[in-house]
Amino acid sequence: MRNDNDMTDPGRNEPPAPSRPRSVVRSMIWATVPVLLVVQLLASAGVEVSSFWSQIRQLDARIARVTESRAELIAEPLWKMRYDQVTSVLNEIMHDETIAAAAVYDDTGVAIARVVARPSDQSVAEVSRPINYRNGNIAVQAGRIAIAYSYATVYTDTSSQLMLLIVVGLLATLATVVALRISADIFIGKPLAAIMSAIQRSKQDGRAYPADIKSSNEFGQLARAFNSMQHTTSGALDRLGHMASHDPLTGLPNRRSLSERLVTLSNDAGSPDSLIAFCFIDLDDFKGINDTFGHDAGDKFLVHISERLREAVEPQDWVARLGGDEFVVIRPEVSNAATAQAFARQLLDAISEPIRLHDKQVIPRASIGLAVRRAGDPELSHLPALADIALYHAKSKAPGTVAVLDEALQRDYRRRRDLELAIPTGFAEGQFEVWYQSLVDLESQAVVGLEALIRWRHPEHGVIGPGEFLPLIERSGNNARLTRYVLTDACRALQRLASAGRPQIRIAINLPPSELADHSLATELRETCARFDVAPSSLELEITEGSLINNIASASETLHRLRRLGATIALDDFGTGYSSLAHLRRFPLDRVKIDKAFISEIPGSAEDQAIVAVIASLAGTLGLTLVAEGIERAEQAQAMREMGVTLGQGFLYQRPQPLEAVLQWLEGQAVPESRILAESPPIAPEFAA
User: Which residue ranges does the record assign to the HAMP domain (predicted)?
Assistant: First the structure.
């Protein structure tokens, strides 16, 4: 079987494979042997050189003694001219292989005897001594003897000895290397190999493998320290692995473990057709728990919830906390979707048992998104996202319930996801359009203002209302961009209105909550108005009660800056939020807009009439202008006038339209209804007002 690593692309330059590292023992031998060999050779050479010079000196001394002795033997025959005896004495020393030649000279310097033993191709040395003859009172120098000798024998012996020493040295070095290799393997190589083997095995599966070294030397001590470190590290890694895959607060598996669990479920399923129930749980208003009781109590609350989930499931089920107030419960095998839904409701019931926090009973509430898939389904790994779609529906439509994923929810999710991804393109291609709806004086029926309302003319989905895409704009972080977009269009519209002879008409734009925390908004508004040469006092900025309480100090500062520029501040949808009278007193407000929910049943609802009357009386006392939203019938307008409401807005007067249609309508040239509907077929009352 070929390894994947062997299947290389011939067209691609592969990096060279790393060379095999040299072992410590081998490196030590390669570093030691040359030095050992050189030292051995130098020592042998030194011994031989010393021996050579010693032999040279001995030979010189021996030849000198031979010359002295021969001179004494030759003295009398030489003096008496017995030259044959002289020659005979010379011949006696020729057996010495070191002597090459000998000669005797008389007192006149004439050679009377010469003996040559052998020719020599090497340099020779020569010893010369005088021959003295003594006889009684006679003492004369009869002549001179000279002996030539060669060092060839010494050279030969020395060379033989040197070669012998070299061979012995090499053999000794080899023996030393073998001994060194064996001892190094025993005392160094094997301990290191044992430690390296333990390290490699530990790297393969993460387990601790001790190095089995029994010696008491430094390597034994190192092995014991290594084994102790392995044990400590293994325990630490086990703890880190557990921490990496489990929630530190509740001890439940975390998000990292989820994908591994889904793979395990797919592999361990008894049958590809077995059903898996995935419950995505999100606690309702957990932020309120933290804000009311503190974060420590919030943590205790989450621990209680995790314990209840553990107790509510079977041993084969899997419970995890993904983070924050999100939990997951997986039942690996259910008979059908109805059984899975009943299981999810059991989890809700278990969660909803009261919990005591700071001596107060708190009833937890949660929403569950349920997705059921077969074990062999390719979408099994997408279960978290699928269940999240159902959870989103439960949270937005009916908190505290179980929402089961179906085709309709998936279609809604795909549409929502497509729109969210298309937001940058929508801005870049100018797909967002600002439409305008008139604000009229209820007495004179004169148009005194327009409200800027955003629409999205999508190339595939047609005109989309703000109720669908504004949450997506907010989630994508494009609130500020959209506000600047609407502000720019409103200033351009004010220019057109002035050119059309309607400079008195003001335009209102809605500010999202996030904009009230942006202290640069006033500066940008002033610069935008200056660019289009319109007065900031021609703008009205509408805010909601909810946006005020999120950051009261920051919102108040931003509103005062806008107010100083001359812009009008209106409180929109009054009565549907916190309805705090303190807001009317604390913030620089000019107008209050009554939500259409209180207008729709008038004049038939006495309760709504009473509420509007109270709001009108309060607004009059505080000097605030009152605006009624959602007026669709003449009797509603009459009731508003009778209760002191000054301004009105709704389908009775005009539907939201593009600026061109509004300008024609203001000129008294009514735009055919069919044209407006053809341009914007999806317009519906729930987002058109």
Answer: 186-238
In a domain, 400, yes or no: yes
Average pLDDT over residues 143-157: 84
Domain of residue 481 covers 417-667
Q: How high is the pLDDT of residue 12?
A: 45
Residue 43 included in any domain = no
246 pairs with which residues across the strands?
253
CA 243/CA 254 separation, integer angstroms: 9
One-character DSSP codes across 607-622: HHHHHHHHHHHHHHHH
C-beta neighbour count of 479 within 10 angstroms: 18
Residue 471 phi, psi dihedral angles, 5° rounding: -60, -30
How far, in Å, are 22, 113, 114, 653 from residue 182 at the CA level?
A: 17, 69, 66, 106
- The arithmetic mean of pLDDT across residues 416-436, rounded, is 91
- Exposure on the CB side of residue 482, measured as CA atoms within 13 A: 31
Q: What is the mean pLDDT of residues 168-187?
A: 78
Task: Identify whether residues 375 and 508 lie together within a single domain.
Answer: no
Contact at 8 Å (CB) between 656 and 671? no
What is the average pLDDT score of the chain? 81
Do the Cβ atoms of 542 and 511 come closer than 8 Å?
A: yes
Q: How far is CA 83 from CA 75, 234, 497, in A?
A: 11, 106, 159
Instruction: Note whether 437 and 375 are same-domain residues.
Output: no
| Mean pLDDT score, 610-637 | 87
pLDDT band at 310 (very low <50, low <70, confident <90, very high): very high
Cα–Cα nearest to 427, from 467, 492, 483, 511: 483
Distance CA 476, CA 561 (A): 27
Shared domain for 545 and 433, answered yes or no, is: yes
- E strand or H helix at 472, and its extent? helix 466-475
For tokens 């529906």, the residue is 393
Question: Which pTM value belongs to this model?
Answer: 0.55
pLDDT (mean) for 28-46: 76
pLDDT digits over 459-504, tens only? 998 999 988 898 888 888 888 899 999 999 999 999 999 998 898 9
Indicate whether 54 belongs to any domain.
no
CATH of the domain at 613: 3.20.20.450
What pLDDT, on the 0 to 100 scale, is given for residue 327? 94
For residue 284, the domain's CATH number is 3.30.70.270
Contact 490, 434 (CB under 8 A): yes
Residue 144 lies in a domain: no
DSSP-derived 3-state class of residue 398: coil
As a whole number of angstroms, the longest Cα–Cα distance in the chain is: 184
The number of folded domains in the chain is 2
Residue 656 has pLDDT above 70, yes or no: yes
For residues 497 and 532, give the distance between their C-alpha atoms in angstroms, rounded to a whole number: 12
SS3 label, residue 67: helix
**Whether pLDDT at 241 is above 70:** no
